[in-house]
Amino acid sequence: MKITEDLIRKVTWEAIEQLGKNVTVDTVKAVVSKSLEKLNAEDHFEKENIGDSGRVILTSFGLNHPGIVAGITQVLSRAQCDIQDISQKLMGDFYTMIMIIDITNSPKELKEIQDELNKIAQELKVKIYLQHEDVFRFMHRI
Question: Quick check: pTM over 0.70?
């Protein structure tokens, strides 16, 4: 977790509200430090247990027609995503595609990429699912 000035300010104000107006500077510093340590510990726990590979798994399927792969890869290219692996299978009139994509260099958040892929999915009349690799691994580890 990135500790920003805004986060420190927020935690400090919360500490002051909890401790009251007659609190000393040293008491506020102690409470804020404890809160920040707790946030760092929680963040470390999440990263340790889920990880942060920066990769996502895209699954797409539907009726086959020209332009599906082009439409999806254009969205990923505009988002500066790196396709690390791709598998596609045609089964009669149906197609399936699975991609492993690195989004670490993308200026967009996962949600923004999902929203753009949802738009192209509607245009192409296909289904597209995007899931963070670490969540996928965690889900299938149970």
Answer: no
